[in-house]
Amino acid sequence: MRGCLGIGLVVVSLAAGLGCGSSGGGGGSAGASAGASSDSGSPPAPTSTGTGDAPPLDAAAPAPPAHDPSAAACTGRATQPLDDMWTLSWDGAARTANVHVPASYDPTRPTPVVLNFHGYTSDATQEALLSDMNAKADQEGFVVVYPQGLNDSWNAGACCGVSAMTGVDDVGFVGDLLDELEARLCVDQHRIFATGMSNGGFLSHRLGCELSTRIAAIAPVAGVLGIPTCAPPRPVPVMHFHGTADPLVPYGGDPALGFPSVQDTFTGWASRNSCPGAPVTTYSKGDTSCSSYDGCAGGVSVTLCTVQGGGHTWPGGLPVPSLGYTTTNISATDAMWAFFTQNPLP
Description:
The protein is an alpha/beta fold. The protein has helices at residues 124-131, 133-140, 161-166, 170-184, 199-210, 262-272, 332-341; strands at residues 8-9, 18-19, 83-90, 93-100, 111-117, 143-147, 187-197, 217-221, 238-243, 280-285, 288-293, 302-307. It is globular, with a radius of gyration of 18 Å.
């Protein structure tokens, strides 16, 4: 496999430098702050109304909730530390996940969860730094979980590493992790979402295909669909972020590695979701634009946010100079959360 498809992160100063290579670690506490917030210059999620800058977040019209969280209030759940590492036994291996619980967490109130998967050769702790999602979780009141892949990899089909080569059942692991989350935390089962970087983005696509009865919406970053068959039993809301100059997961695809193009991944989801017509531009600022298929089955949308000249990076996140340009014209973390809030599980 050419190069690496994730981010091996080396913190060299308060400015946190990044390089691509083996991380050597299996994840630790995700509690460290990711540094300065990426809110500056980062607009909210694209909407389906016109072109140009998206309206302010509070002007967007969220979809009406499909359920009443108060009807499923929890009992018997304990308070939780703000940051913890959980260990579960799955398929003969000890698997871990870093769990960040916001200070506002109420063990009687159903709370949204975002699963955030690291890239190949990266790890759970690095993913928290890269995406700065802990700060967003604290601001918006959701739990964010950073699972750890075996050998710093995930089996997402065509990608990546030992997990893909040996057929590790990572979809089964995620299902078991969700069981554990629902047993220990007061989880809103209608608002469980998945994102990830690179290999973690590939896995997010796979979970949209194979675990859509539990995961409400997905927002992959720098990862395409790496499995040959995808037939979810319901329409799946998708928001995909990708740079046109990504050196590791090329925008135009890589047949030798079994990577489809970003466009084929985008239109593939539109076809599965029975989206009518052509996509329309829903956001444009500087080097970044988003296109969306709206009016799809189940009222879902499929959105692709493209960064012209963008590298193998997290838009609005911690820059990775060795892997190309990181835009500040959109924050993937902010935009995907706005998207998630509009797309609970029916």
